[in-house]
Write a structure and sequence with these properties.
271 residues; alpha/beta; Rossmann fold; 8-stranded mixed β-sheet; 44% helix; AB_hydrolase_fold; 2-succinyl-6-hydroxy-2, 4-cyclohexadiene-1-carboxylate synthase; AB_hydrolase_1; Epox_hydrolase-like; catalytic activity
């Protein structure tokens, strides 16, 4: 792991491989290790930069000036400037896709392509916004994720049969949720408010004229395929790919299928 400091706060990131640069953004409540199966293959052809989102993995809490996902996209751009990286492609899952789209809009001349996975760049629907903010408030108040809430949150990330198909993956995520305690729990909920209180990036969607791939797990509950279809329809010339037998973390539920699709798309972009 490497480190980069912004306003005294330390961001941890992975920098592996050589070649054209791919910037990967992980899901809320996960970290850079979420991308392990993809990095194993992609890093043989590309230089992969994977920051831990603020308050996730080994990164500190967000700097005071980082108030929303546009600000976070600028933080990642500062990292890329620090690394003297002029051009890059973005692969973002969930919140990684949300800030990834903002980064593509902030630095269009530097962004070669964009992959939006199990994500949505519009407003959070009102009912879910209220539900998520109530959960975040409850977690911040008790400074941990209560067991009944772990029972609710865990299945949201996976396909319906995940506990049978991939029990170790589900158990590890439950264990991770149990480990979020104290100030970290408060810091993580602050990031959650940025995620679920995000702006409607559809306001600027016509500016996304770069090669774009939209990917979604067919059983994704938080970000259903309809949302991905809306993004695909709105982004001119984008490609659309549905991952069978997968939920929100489709890259870990169907790693071989997803890795092959990402590699194929990036090879086309860089041909």
């Amino acid at each position: 792991m490497n480190t980069f400091t912004i306003d005294t706060q330390t961001m941890h990131y992975v920098d592996i491989g050589e070649g054209p640069v791919l910037v990967l953004g992980h899901s809320y409540l996960w970290d850079n290790k979420m991308w392990a199966p993809q990095l194993e293959v992609l890093s043989q052809h590309y230089r992969c930069i994977v920051p831990d989102l603020w308050s996730h993995g080994r990164s500190d809490a967000a700097p005071q000036k980082t108030q929303n996902l546009q600000d976070y996209a600028r933080d990642v751009l500062c990292l890329l400037d620090h690394l003297q990286i002029d051009s890059f492609s973005i692969i973002g899952l969930s919140v990684g896709g949300m800030w990834g789209a903002e980064l593509a809009l902030i630095a269009p001349e530097r962004t070669k392509s964009l992959v939006l996975m199990d994500t949505f760049i519009g407003f959070e629907p009102e009912v879910m916004h209220a539900k998520y903010f109530a959960m975040l408030d409850a977690i911040a108040q008790v400074q941990h994720v209560p067991e009944p809430m772990i029972d609710v949150i865990t299945p949201m990330f996976f396909a319906r049969n995940a506990e049978q198909a991939n029990p170790a993956l589900v158990a590890k995520f439950r264990e991770h949720l149990s480990s979020i305690k104290g100030q970290q729990a408060v810091d993580v909920t602050n990031i959650g408010r940025m995620v679920f209180g995000r702006r409607d990036t559809f306001d600027d969607v016509e500016q996304l004229t770069l090669p774009t791939l939209v990917v979604v797990g067919v059983q994704d509950m938080p970000r259903p395929p309809l949302e991905s279809q809306l993004m695909h329809d709105a982004i001119d010339g984008s490609q659309f790919f549905i991952v069978q037998d997968a939920g929100h973390i489709c890259n870990l539920e169907q790693p071989a299928v997803v890795t092959e699709k990402l590699l194929s798309f990036m090879n086309d972009v860089h041909a």
